[in-house]
Structures are given as C-alpha cells and as structure tokens.
Amino acid sequence: MNNSEISRQTLLSLTITIEALLLLTATAWRFFGNIQLAPSLALSREAVIIGVLVGLGIAAVSWFCYFLGKYLRLFSGLRKFSKNFLAPLVLTLSWQDIIIMSLVSGFCEEILFRGIMQKETNLFTASIAFGIFHDPSLQQKTYVLSAMIAGLVLGMAYMKTGNLWTPIIAHILHNAISLLLLRYQVKPES
After folding, report:
1. What are the two backbone dihedrals, phi and then psi, of residue 84, each rounded to the nearest 5 degrees?
2. pTM given for the model
3. Of 54, 87, 124, 143, which is the most exposed, with the fewest CB atoms less than 10 Å away?
4. At CA 172, angle to CA 9 and CA 111, rounded to 5?
5. Phi-psi label, residue 68: left if phi above 0, alpha if psi -120 to 50, beta otherwise
6. Hey, where are the domains in the chain?
C-alpha cells in the first residue's frame, strides 16, 4: 500500500494510536522514574508568547528550506519528500483533521521528548530521538536532520521557560501550519 491509498480514517487512527503510545510511554517512565511534570505544566503568559514565536519561527524556517529545495541540492530531498510523500498523505484531511492531529501530536510528543526524555537524559539525546522518531528508517536524512534541529529549538525553548507549554504550543503551531500548507498549497508530483 502506498501513501495515496491510506484513507483519512486510517491516517487519523494511526496518528492517534501512535501518539497515545508515546503518552503511555511517558506516563510509565514518569511513574517508574518518579518524575514530576506538574510544576512545568503551569500555564503562563510567557510560555504562550514564546511558544507562539518559536512555532512561527520553526514553521517559517521549515518552509524556507522547502522552497530552497527548488534551487539547492542540500534541501532538494526535503522538498521531494514533502511533495511525493507528505502532500499526498494529507490530501484527504480536512482542516479540522489537521488541527486535531496537530494538537494530539504536539502535546504527546512534547510530554515524552521534552518533559520526560530531555529531563532524564539531555537536550541532545532527546533531540536525536525526536528526529529519528520522525523517520525511523532514516531514509529521509534531511527530514530527520530538520526534525532534530526542530527538537533542539523546542528543547531550548523549554529550558528557557521551564514550562512545557512553550514547546507544546510551538510544536502544535508548527504542525498545523505545515500540514495546512501541505494540504492546501503543495501540489503533489504526478
């Protein structure tokens, strides 16, 4: 089955299942590691503002790299992956589906990678794991590298504020913008 044969329902179910497993992993790790998350989940104005700015920044850089892929070989793999795999994958999604997927993935991934893993290991380990999570086959090296760099930025934002809502909001915003642009602006190659 190729990605154009994946139905909307399958994609949503798969996303929610994977993210639920990440949250379950984080919950077990938190329980057995006696890790306190509650203090870093107190919502603040600073966390929201920095989260929005970081999310917009990551989304802008991602799309700048996508457009550079038209002219620079360094980014051509990322552009090709976006046009040939990601764009066709999201074609069946509505904007509401995209918002739901962004909320679920941004929250669950940040709880695990920043709230638990970064706290228990370090920024670099969590960022590398985050990048590999986005393509475990490591076939799309530029995509993995861009996810690792995004993970570093999200991790530094978390370190700056000490508040998990900062990377959660940034991640949700980045995913929503990227998926909406992929869905409505990028034309898959035939």
Report:
1. -90, -25
2. 0.93
3. 124
4. 95
5. alpha
6. 44-184
